[in-house]
Write a structure and sequence with these properties.
Bound molecules: S-adenosylmethionine
CATH superfamily of the largest domain: Vaccinia Virus protein VP39
CATH class of the largest domain: Alpha Beta
Largest sheet: 7 strands, mixed
Strand content: 25-35%
Number of helices: 6
Distance between the termini: 35 Å
Helix content: 25-40%
Order of helices and strands: HHEHEHEEHEEEEEHEE
Radius of gyration: 18 Å
């Protein structure tokens, strides 16, 4: 399966009910206030934070590679009487009719791009869709290996139809040279006598700061700031989620 199709089928069904936390819309609302509109969220999924930003009247479009996630977004938008323009595309092959003052990912979705070549293609797409003077916000982190005692542990939730939903880590491989971690996740849905069980590899790919800067430069983008999620400048050895702001060169 292509990594861009990970959030489809049973994974999309279980994404909402198993979600442990939503992206804080304030962070992205503040970024859009600062960078301007129109704005674009890459990897908007089922609509967090895109729908809240639309509810606040912000001109924000979305892109996602999963038709199943976008279908959920549309249903949620209808239920809240919101309109949103969303495109079913991969961020590494962006072709949109507008240019944007603000392009962002909410949380470390960029680490779902499995290698540097795909990341470069996505950065080129961002560059091509930034309006004059526009800014992109790319949150990045280096994932920690799943602790051994968590392998096999099951998280459960209940679907709206009463089905029991389960997800667990089956195994994990880490490649420090390729900078990838592949976690084999088992997704389960049990309802009465019916059961579905599917194992999916979830790939995360990360970057030392200088490597990300090189890729951005190759795409015609310069790193204007690296901050923590509170907006404070991040020292060179900072860990955790970092916000990279990119501008055209
Ligand atoms: C972790 S979800 C986040 C969704 C949403 N922003 C949220 O916080 O609930 C990541 C989303 O990125 C999408 N995605 C993954 N790879 C992608 C790609 N190459 N191009 C566009 N979207 C992608 C997935 O389909 C999924 O909906």
């Amino acid at each position: 399966m292509d990594p861009a199709d990970f959030y489809t089928g049973i994974v999309a069904d279980l994404y909402g009910p198993l979600k442990s936390h939503s992206q804080d819309p304030e962070l992205y609302a503040a970024f859009i206030e600062e960078a301007g509109t129109p704005a674009l969220e890459l990897g908007c999924g089922d609509g967090d934070p895109l729908l809240e930003l639309r509810r606040r009247g912000m001109d924000v479009d979305g892109v996602d590679s999963s038709a199943d996630m976008l279908e959920r977004l549309r249903r949620r938008a209808d239920a809240q009487d919101l309109r949103a323009t969303v495109y079913h595309q991969r961020m590494e092959a962006l072709r949109l009719p507008r240019h944007y003052q603000a392009i962002f990912l909410a949380g470390p979705t960029f680490t779902l791009l499995p290698d540097d070549a795909t990341a470069l293609a996505a950065l080129r797409g961002i560059r091509a869709h930034l309006a004059e003077g526009g800014t992109a916000l790319v949150p990045l982190f280096t994932p920690a290996p799943t602790p051994a005692e968590q392998i096999g542990q099951v998280r459960t939730a209940t679907a709206p139809d009463g089905a029991e939903l389960r997800v667990s880590v089956v195994a994990e491989q880490r490649d420090e040279t390729a900078r990838t971690q592949t976690t084999l996740l088992r997704y389960e849905r049990h309802h009465g006598s019916e059961s579905t069980v599917e194992d999916r590899p979830w790939i995360l790919h990360w970057y030392p700061r200088d490597r990300f800067e090189e890729l951005a430069a190759a795409a015609g983008l310069a790193v204007a700031a690296v901050t923590d999620t509170d907006g404070k400048p991040a020292p060179a050895d900072a860990a955790g989620l970092l916000h990279f702001r990119l501008r055209t060169t």
